[in-house]
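User: I'm putting together notes for a lab meeting next week and I want to include a structural view of one of the chains we've been expressing. I don't have a solved structure, so I'd like a prediction I can at least talk through. The sequence is below, exactly as it appears in our construct file.
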Amino acid sequence: MAKACGAREETTYYALIECTMAKTFWEAMKVITRIKLPHLCPAMWTVDILDDAICKEWDRCVI
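Assistant: Thanks for the context. Below is the predicted structure for the 63-residue chain, given as structure tokens.
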């Protein structure tokens, strides 16, 4: 299924991390909570969030 932005496929990763609205949301969260979304691998992003080396426990709770 095509996205409203015209890209071919909408994945959960795209919707939560890459789309324009998601990026705007994460930028606002960085200002409000001082938490920056870590660099996440598109194929393993859910595992990355649970990895203490990539995402701190408090950040993980907020995210």
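A couple of points you could mention at the meeting. The chain has a mean pLDDT of 86. The chain has one domain: 12-62.

User: Perfect, that's what I needed.
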